[in-house]
Amino acid sequence: MTHTVLVPTEGSPLSTKALEVALEDYPDAEIVVVHVMDPLGSGRTLVDVMRPTFRDGAPPGSVTPEYWQEWRDQAEQRAEEVFDDARDLAAERDQDVETVLEFGKPDDVVLEYAEEHDVDRIVMGSHCRSGAERFLLGSVAERVVRRAPVPVMVVR
Q: Is the pTM of this model over 0.85?
């Protein structure tokens, strides 16, 4: 019997579909929705992250405390939106989900969480939202499938 299902999400349509599948297929399990704040993003470098898109005006190649605080605030706000959507989706089915916000490289965080929290199954989307990430055929999903200590269901 599956007791705990981990659903990594970043808010993309496929991660939402993965949550729908988890709620449908495992109605009696504890569903844990994890969102990973990743400052480098999938396939990006630190230089890409430091493009001057933040209000503090930090030029590429420099990192200020204000920059990182603004990045963290934006990432936390985005995570809360993702969690609100997940809770709403579960509520439509008279179910609850636990939400977890982590920081790091998504595949490593998912795998560590699964090992440390006695997860029975991982249900995740096959890839994220952007075209470049789609080209990689979901490198995060691929790494999780290869290294997971539990069965992984990949939703397309």
A: no
